Amino acid sequence: MDARMIRALAASLALGGLLALPAGAQQYDDEPDENAPPVQIFPDVDAAVAGQVAEAPAAILRGLDKRVGDVTDLALAKGDTVALGRLQVTLGECRYPRDNPSGDAFAYLVIRQAGEDRPVFQGWMIASAPALSALEHPRYDIWVMRCTT
Prior knowledge:
3-stranded antiparallel sheet; 5-stranded antiparallel sheet; single chain; alpha+beta
């Protein structure tokens, strides 16, 4: 047996041993380390972007009930929750370009079906490109209009 065959055999035995462990014996660390520094994939870009955006205390969203065609504007302060039909919409943050307050806003939203804990949408929505990160719901559409100060 040559060295390549020995390495291949050792790797397959090790992999086989891991796969043979019962699911409960395989350890997964899903809990984040609270003391770990935040991960910055592109630190130079993160710092540059942080200086170009400002955070607003509130936002205006627009909701559409596709079944009846009703359009509703929703005014939310940071941390507030409002209802749109059977949806509960919570605003986490609203940010906008520092040099253009009426410009391209983006908001962090958590949207839940009434009475359910699991969100149907959780993430950032961008005013100028709502389809990039959209709520997928059979009855309602929600999109960001602007941040308000």
